[in-house]
Amino acid sequence: MVLFQSMTTVSWLTAAAFILLMWFGSMKNPITIAGIFIRQLFTSRTYLFHILALVAILVLNNVELKIENAMNLQWDFTPFIHQIEGNFVHHFQQWFRNDWVTTIVGFFYVVIFQALLLSSLSIYTAEKKNQMVYATVYAVMINYIIAIPFYLFFPVNEVWSYAPAQVQFLMLDIFPNFEQQYRALSGLNNCFPSLHTSVSVTLAILAIRSGNKRWAIFSTISAVIIVFSIFYLGIHWLTDMIGGLVLAGTASTLGYWLAHRNTLRSPSTLSVPGREGVPKQPLDQR
């Protein structure tokens, strides 16, 4: 079943998922959350700086593809990875293959993965947990900063593109124009480590540490489905997933530690109009 006709469809579905998850995770009106977010951008330079830093690292990820093309490196570690793993992904895909499974995991891989990051930032902002906002920003940045050098100097092609692996690219069943419209966002040889694994698991770990049980449960379930999807859809190797898990553990730990350290150093996070003379408290403590 074709789920995505174009990137326009992906964008609309992501926006809808984002709005729904904001409400689900915070139990607040999404418009109210948007108001809190905008107020934070204009009243807290620290908050604004962190959001801009996150945007910058996401832009850098796209620039990486151009740098990689300019470097024109000839080596390829895909045969080495296949020699280690054999046809694990092929057998995994064949065991679970089903049209409905393809539709569900494809939706999580393309839409929910993007909405998770945006929703996490919005939910923590709505709950006035700036420490968790900063932890999320740091952790995601660490994910990309560590992964990008591997993409540049340790190229591994997606499983489906390596003929001896005997794997089908099931994403095309639900997104026929994936290669023409989505590929520009993700290089064919940017496999190790799996960022879909590392970022989704990172967000789940931080959600658990946030104290929001509802969001922790959903984020954890989403991470499990997304990790499942990287094999099922024929995209990543088992080695990519293991690397992603190690990266997630590292990034979430460092991100949380950095946020906690910075919060202790600078407890004031939000100015309230009309209360300029009143000592400010950390948002997490209100």
UniProtKB/TrEMBL annotation:
Its main location: membrane. The chain crosses the membrane at residues 6-25, 46-63, 100-121, 133-154, 187-208, 215-235, 241-259. One of its GO terms (cellular component) is membrane. Keywords: Membrane, Transmembrane, Transmembrane helix. Residues 86-252 form the Inositolphosphotransferase Aur1/Ipt1 domain. It is a multi-pass membrane protein. It is found in: Membrane. Residues 267-286 are annotated as: Disordered. It holds the Pfam family PAP2_3. InterPro entries: Aur1/Ipt1, IPC_Synthase-Related, PAP2/HPO_sf. This is Inositol phosphorylceramide synthase.
